[in-house]
Amino acid sequence: EFRRVLFRSGRRYDPQPFHIDEDAARASIHGGLIASGFHTCALVIRVMCEGYLLRTANMGSPGIDELRWVRPARPGDTLTVKQSVLESRPTSKPGRGLVRFLITVENQHGETVMTMKVVNLFARRT
Q: Which residues pair with 54 in a beta bridge?
């Protein structure tokens, strides 16, 4: 359940009151408990790994170009990860290519929770 994961990971990795304390969260600008944005990023990576990364010639990522938390993810939310390719090109090193993705995370109401532009490095056929 999301709430259990939220509390467990929030206390351990991002112990800000609006992530772990219901009373403090209600009094915050968020009006209730919210997930850590970085926890949401970790969930996206898990979805990407299960979806395709572990079955490809993925060589890792040189980084994230842009990351936006558009609205909070909350306990009980069902999140959907959508991904589209913005660019793919070979690198200057033979046998490698870069793919730039736009990742959008939406809640069960179709509202955007998070967006990020990421770059992944993949092995290429010569």
A: none
Strand order in the sheet with 112-123: 63-69, 112-123, 96-106, 80-90
- Continuous H helices in 52-90: none
pLDDT in tens, 20-58: 888 998 999 999 989 999 989 998 999 999 999 999 999
Residue 8 confidence (pLDDT):
57
Q: How confident is the model at residue 126 (pLDDT cuts 50, 70, 90)?
A: confident
Q: How many helices (H) and strands (E) does the chain have?
A: 4, 4
CA 82 to CA 104: how far, in whole Å? Answer: 5
Question: Could you tell me the end-to-end alpha-carbon distance of the chain, in angstroms, rounded to an integer?
Answer: 45
Question: How far, CA to CA in Å, does 52 sit from each of 11, 19, 46, 49?
Answer: 30, 30, 10, 6
pLDDT (average), residues 46-73: 94
